[in-house]
């Protein structure tokens, strides 16, 4: 069950709670009234349901009937159950807050803590109305409200975890509710003297054990069976001989598939396991529980056949062997107990075989008994885990929570519905008695005359059911215990005879003629306080007897399972007394519960289911009307409204409404009672509309309260304007004074700060100047702190000066002067800076310039300090083409037609070639490519010589200023008739390009001798003679040698 509030009540819940429930009256036309007592037409059932529907449609599920909380299940999550919401309801009065289950819980807790009175909260309603969720919210509220010590936290965790554990074993899916409680539960939460939880105890009532063996269409068995079969622990299932794929008779008698998409059995089993650990169930105890659950599933699969004599026998011995193994008993004894019955009469033992029907009855009875007693053992085990330590018992108070089935009216009502409705009759009787008693006590305390209330006293119905020797339970026990064959019809006849004059009992034999068709012969009708209910007598006698054959008890008492050994005792076999009937046991436990409840101050939560579809937003008026009737809500309202609809203490009433009277506004300094009297006089209350008690004002009619509240809502506008004016004036002046004072303080501190800062600066400046002066004087002496500081400062100043006066160009070699202390650093910095400038210069070079520099560097390596003409060429850029302009077209055509693919022209120039014999000069052009050297006729550009770069063995030049170039080629190249003798005006440039193309710098030889030999074809040699002269010249000498004259 989740809940919420309307826009009127939901906005600002934390602050709205403290504003009082009267403030919600302004939205009563939309959201209805928060307390049914304030209904004008309180006797109208239609008005009651209309108010309930208004609140439900605006997501307000809680409404009061005085101290009773009515809760409608919204079937959706509405976030009003947080810890923050719980804190808003803490330490406030019940009527200071909008309706909420936390308000009921907090009021009960505060009364327990402050007044030292035991409390109980009674939760009732039909299946699916939200009773279990309501009890969870109560436990959640208590857990948040109470202390935080380790012991308290441990107890609270056990209390919270007891719920999922009991739900697994006591709840099941029904057609009305996916998590329906199939047992009644009363929980006592034990508190110490300071209000902390220190323990708890549980009582369970009327577990629907018939569900173990049979479920109605569309329903499931108890959750634990499906949870266990859904377990992911394969070893556990193997040890229990279980499989999710196996057919289990006790589960598949239901139409519902074992796998339910709306129920998370796998996740819930993990929750149950954790709860068992928190409750401190040992591993052995947990195993014993799961073993019993598994044995019941296997027991359901035990089938019987019948021979020609009518004797039953077990069909599958292996199944009974599995059951016996799980129960740790003898399989033969268990088989005998299921097939035969032993009766002991006057000391004699008689064993008779069972027919198939009785054998199946014995099997089912055993399954139900095992489960029922295991459940009772589990509750007792929970109690032992929750029991406080002995020394705390003397100073404890308890708060009980009763989560019990509501009034039930089905299409077919049987023994279970009879017991449930009997329980609700007892609770209604207790409620009327306690409510009237509470009303009478309040009237007496306040000195107001008590007016007797007319109400239906259901004691006559309780007596009809439970009266000794005359009631229905006594007649049922009489039928069950009489000698001979007992029957349900015999029980019905007894009732028809003994209750013939009772106006709340109707059977076919005493019904009027008009009702004969409505009541079959095997049914009877009781006129309960909530309406007429017709019960079928079929099964009453068997369910009341609840017998388990002696043979089966003997077998179960001999088992080694720790739980069955504890719940099936030898004393049970030794006792000659017939076991008490189920109805008598329930009557006794119910009367004990009434004794417990009558000693406590009760609070009530009435839960209502809005529809049977379990869907949010649907309000089935007929279904709700039916529940309003059988919950006795109209009766509750009538009792509450017998006197006055509204009551409040004088101080609370005056505090809220004092603004409506000039005599009480803004403050009333006298007795609050006198102030309320003045207020009522000003509002012109009629004397019959209200009454003045000793501490409270009592208002009889809701319209009087509504009129007062509406006037207050109108007055709020004037009050808001007045408050705004006063507040704005106060806030503005307060803000001005605050700003003025802040400005003065800021000025004071700023002036102080500035003065202190100036003083520190002057002091620091003097110290710095003194140190610098001393350092300057001693700068050339022994190192001291002062002169090192001065030197450091001079270095810093130098670096700063240097940063602003660095050379702008690479060719600028100027460098700022430095002090003595910075000389070494200055040299390093100069070198680094020059390197950086050079790097930047290189980075900015174009490819053409870079090529020039590469060639110039190569020329420098080849000729510097080796050839005299080098110094005259290193400042002149090299050119790729030295041919006259008129030859450029021939060069282009030659490139296009004569160069092979991949061959690229790198350099060309005019040269003079000398023959090897007569040394006659020839004008030629020299072309250097990346693969060869071409010597062509300058006139027609015909190829005269073509040498691949690989064929050149050596380049020879002189060290003088001449342009001689000797290209040595291998002797085997006969076509070229020996080495080439060339004269080139730009010999250094030409050789540099050739060496760059060959990529072999060592191919160059600079001759320092006056005679240079050269090869001629046929292995002969010629001589080149280098002589000094007045001018440069080439020619054949008298000796027949080539003479090169240099100056």
Describe the structure.
Residues 32-713 form the Myosin motor domain. There is one protein chain. The chain has 35 helices and 31 strands. It has 1047 residues and is α+β, with helices and mostly antiparallel strands. The strands form eight sheets. Strands 23-22-21-20-26-25-24-27 form an eight-stranded mixed beta sheet, with helices on one face. It has a seven-stranded mixed beta sheet with strand order 1-2-16-3-12-6-7, with helices on both faces. Strand 21 (921-929) and strand 22 (932-937) form a beta hairpin. The chain is elongated and about 175 Å long. 35% of the residues are buried.
Summarize it.
This protein has 1047 residues and is an alpha+beta fold. It contains 35 helices and 31 strands.
Features:
7-stranded mixed β-sheet, alpha+beta, about 1050 residues, 31 strands, disordered N terminus, about 15% strand, 8-stranded mixed β-sheet, single chain, elongated
Q: What is the residue-mean pLDDT, rounded to a whole number?
A: 85
Task: Enumerate how many helices there are, as a single number.
Answer: 35
* Percentage of residues in DSSP E strands: 15-25%
Overall geometry comes to: elongated
How many beta-strand segments? 31
Distance between the termini: 123 Å
Domain TH1: 867-1047
Membrane topology: Peripheral membrane protein
Pfam families: Myosin_head (PF00063), Myosin_TH1 (PF06017)
InterPro entries: Kinesin_motor_dom_sf, Myosin_head_motor_dom-like, Myosin_TH1, MYSc_Myo1, P-loop_NTPase
